[in-house]
Amino acid sequence: MAQAIPYIIMGTSTALSAGSALAAGSAAKNEANYNAAIKDNQALGIEQNVQANKFLAQAEIQRMRESFASFAGQNTVNFAGSGVDLSSGSVATIERKNLEKYLDDEYMFKYNEAKRNTADLNQAQMLKVDAQATRMRGKFARKMSYIKAGTTLLSGGSQMYRYDQLNKLNQINSSSTSSGEIQ
Predict the structure, then answer these.
(1) Is the model's pLDDT at 178 over the cut of 60?
(2) Inter-axis angle of helices 5-81 and 89-178, to 10 degrees?
(3) Alpha-carbon distances of 30 from 43, 131, 135, 147, rounded to whole Å
(4) Global pTM value
């Protein structure tokens, strides 16, 4: 029984180390999947915000158009009320410049909105790519844990074999010296 104790200790230690490697790999994979799911949800939230922002931008453009139409109409009433000939060149020039200014504002609003949406969609795409890479790292960690566990088991088996061979050699040496032979 006393001779079995080193084998039990080595075997138990090897098994625990291998099990620990497998558990660590499993935990790494689970953590990676969890983190990837968070990134996927963040990407989805950004994409949903972009869709909502498009709707809000259309409403804002409609509000801008209505506001300009009201402004242009009020200008026409003010010009007519002041006795200015509405077909005169100065009134048409002012109205054209006001329209150009409004169109510039609307274009700039649309441009900035599209630019922001593009940046947000790029960010969402990068989150998705990062989530996929995180999942791949988790799978790789899991596979590496199998290799580490296998290496641990082989190393433990090798140590037990070496110990066994040394033990047999010591038994041979002790039996030959105990018989009174000189070596």
Answers:
(1) no
(2) 180
(3) 20, 13, 9, 18
(4) 0.69
